[in-house]
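To close the chapter, one final illustration. This time we ask the reader to focus less on the individual chains and more on the assembly as a whole: which components sit near each other, and how the overall shape emerges from the parts.
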Amino acid sequence: MSDYYSQENHGPFHLHSLGDFTLTSGQVLKDAQIAYATQGTLNAAKDNAVLVTTWYTGTTKIMEQIYIGAGHALDPSKYFIILANQLGSGLSTSPSNSAAQGGAAFPAVSMGDDVNAQHRLVTEAFGLDHLALVFGGSMGAGQALEWACRYPGFAQRVAALAGVGTTRPHAVVIGKIVQDILTSAPGFNGGAYAAADMAVPLRQHALYWTNLAWCPDFLDRKGWEPLGHASLDAFLTDFMTGYFAPMDANNLLAQVSKWQRADVGGIAGGDAKAAYAKVKSKVLLMPISSDQIFPVTTCIAEAALIPGARLTVIEGKAGHLGLFAIEPDYMPQINAALSGLLGEQV
Amino acid sequence: MSDYYSQENHGPFHLHSLGDFTLTSGQVLKDAQIAYATQGTLNAAKDNAVLVTTWYTGTTKIMEQIYIGAGHALDPSKYFIILANQLGSGLSTSPSNSAAQGGAAFPAVSMGDDVNAQHRLVTEAFGLDHLALVFGGSMGAGQALEWACRYPGFAQRVAALAGVGTTRPHAVVIGKIVQDILTSAPGFNGGAYAAADMAVPLRQHALYWTNLAWCPDFLDRKGWEPLGHASLDAFLTDFMTGYFAPMDANNLLAQVSKWQRADVGGIAGGDAKAAYAKVKSKVLLMPISSDQIFPVTTCIAEAALIPGARLTVIEGKAGHLGLFAIEPDYMPQINAALSGLLGEQV
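The assembled structure is written out below.
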């Protein structure tokens, strides 16, 4: 298990045991655990709980750092905020930490599994019967929308930032590139690699995400300079490779495969519209205007499937990784959108 | 030398010898030849000549197939059309065919070198002192704009489709991904590879271009179906890998490095605006609306540097590879734009 996924780097986080956890596929994830963090205090009425999910390669730590705090919509002085790491993240049960099903033996997990695990967490650990909000970005947005379908009404509100609930071919291709880069590495060895042998493919993965997740204008205007990097090469080496290279390839593969198969319609015979017909939550989609992974048009098409869903475009000039809140006018837009949603009566 | 670059596949083409050709870098490309094709007849006044350039991975063959013919603006019954393959294309002198400087020994070539070679071709082989039009797409657009700066007024008109004259960081990153994928292959061997050892990186290159060159909506609406492919996997295997996999990696590296270093400002101390101040051609930029490689905003920024330049957005729903004219309303827009430009008095 890589040190990267340690309490020191990503904690403090706690583990909630799910035991032998039956997946939507019918397979069993043995001795499963969901890693989570909390901020704030659950009130007596148990009506101030918010669940925050995680994106591809992210953990709850970055969600806490960016989206949670005094002055933000998700203010721990008002809300009891539960942040849950997705399966395969490296913190919850993952290829990198599963004793029984590590590496390539890790079964394929789905966003439905994440949501079922999160439901177990919030009901078993905190005795909740509803959530004021489920909020997530990118793959975390997929989980939030899966919540709306899988447990209708449990989440009173769902906010899906820069993501959708059903993966379309464009994102399948993105996943195939990641899969090909990682699994074709000479030392991959069916997933039983030595970490050092994955340095080249992980560097390529970082380069690819540079192109994918920052918009052309961000790169062309040297968007790395305000982030403190003197040159493109420094940005690629220190920031992008620095961020992605310590990750575990099998974890990335578990997540990317999950992303490729994401489909809220899984609970309705593959019919996303039928699944969304069950939704009782107030649903808000929040695409980022310059996002090339989840373009605004893709999110508009998704919103059209969801009864009553609304859409607020977050104006951003950085692309998908505007999610990192590097632009000064980003969090004000996020906070306004989430505060507005949280302020609505249900 | 790979069979792929044969007369059978890409001809008929002719070779014009440049002898030992001094590059803008000062290095010498030995026994250089520029491969070209012609259509139509040069008139007595020698004022109906059009030069067509080539894009990354493309040869004159695809330009002939798509853009030249009766009913098109570039009609051989009206114009004498010279189509010139870029250095490194596999047809003109390239890593794959240079006897003296093959493979990794091939010197870095620039778009300035292409334009100098093309100038040699049109003056030496055809005795021209001007061209009615230089037209190219993508990297070919870069060559067309380089013409406008390097030989002011020689081209009366310049039409740059889906491309710019100076590479910005976004495209540098694209090149770095291609370079890393190809050169990190276990069998790359500093460029002295066996072709079979490059199958995996060339497949990855094809996958990457699938993501890069088709827009999200093209993939999400199963844009491959009207092209006759039954599934995404069939499209990836038969069309994308089928197109890219037979190419020579060293040729791709020569081209991608040229693209990264493209800079019309090379003739003016690196100052693109100063280089464009020399322009006497009527310049038309034609970005494709859904292009993610040369976004409309990038082309607008380029046009702002060029005195008198105009810009016509080509509406397309396929992304950069709309260049392949797969949409029924594509060529009518191209033909209208080029006919309009050609019809203007100079």
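The beta strands of chain B are 14-22, 28-39, 49-52, 80-84, 133-137, 157-161, 282-286, 310-311. Chain B has one domain: 3-168+262-343. With these observations in hand, you are ready for the problems at the end of the chapter.
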